[in-house]
Amino acid sequence: MYRQIAEDLRRRIVSGEMAEGALLPTEAALCELWGTSRGPVRNALAQLRREGLIDTGQGRQGSVISRQARQPIDVYLPFTRWAEVHGRQPGAHTVSLSLRRAGEDCAAQLDVPPEAMVVELVRLRLLDGEPTMLERTRFREDVGRLLFDADLEAGSITAYLATRGLNFDQVEVEIDAIGADPLDADLLGIDEASPVLRLRRRSSDADGRAFEYSDDRYRSDTVRFTVNAAGGSNGERGIRPTAGASHQER
């Protein structure tokens, strides 16, 4: 039931029937409309919040958020699916696909020797035809070789790998802001050294074996990242200072 409720609200938001800033129906109204209890309604709203379509809070009626694309980082949503959820047209332009040595940094992320071969894919990702993100992804060799038979501009690599029996089980994400390098600037259509949002992602399979490490760089004017957090959490997820950050006593 909650999927039906979420799909109906998503359709109304994406079509513009519910404009930016519009208040959502109350939980009570949705319960009455769908003839259900608050559980499915709350699950539907939580799903839309994770997708970055609505903003909700304790004791506050939900509302439709900005059409600027928002990327939740507490749940993994592949770029293609993320774009579709927001009613945008995803696209891709393959810059290069090559076999290369892992090197020290990549080897540490993929748990392979530095001299091991990996497959590197560089793609420019588009939203409605506009450059949005430049991804540099390195795959364990046995996984990456599958991509040489794939149409890398026709759809989601995540979906393609799933058809080959490889599913994402755990995804570790780290985000920071850096200056655009020459390749970023050229392909994203921005000035060199202008700020980009960098999302580094390490993906593992069901056996806990890392198979993908990606460095994705987003134009800062096209996307924002969101996280939904519960108070009192003391786990690994969270915000931490960089190595050069100073400590201020309070």
From TrEMBL:
Gene3D superfamilies attached to this UniProt entry: Chorismate lyase-like, Winged helix-like DNA-binding domain superfamily/Winged helix DNA-binding domain
One Pfam family matching this protein: GntR
Protein name: GntR family transcriptional regulator
GO molecular function, one term: DNA binding
SUPFAM superfamilies in the record: Chorismate lyase-like, Winged helix' DNA-binding domain
Stretches the record annotates as Disordered: 228-250
Record keyword RNA-binding present: no
HTH gntR-type domain ranges (all copies): 1-68
Gene Ontology process terms (BP): negative regulation of DNA-templated transcription
Source taxon at top rank: Bacteria
Keywords: DNA-binding, Transcription, Transcription regulation
PANTHER family with a match to the protein in the record: GNTR-FAMILY TRANSCRIPTIONAL REGULATOR, MANNOSYL-D-GLYCERATE TRANSPORT/METABOLISM SYSTEM REPRESSOR MNGR-RELATED
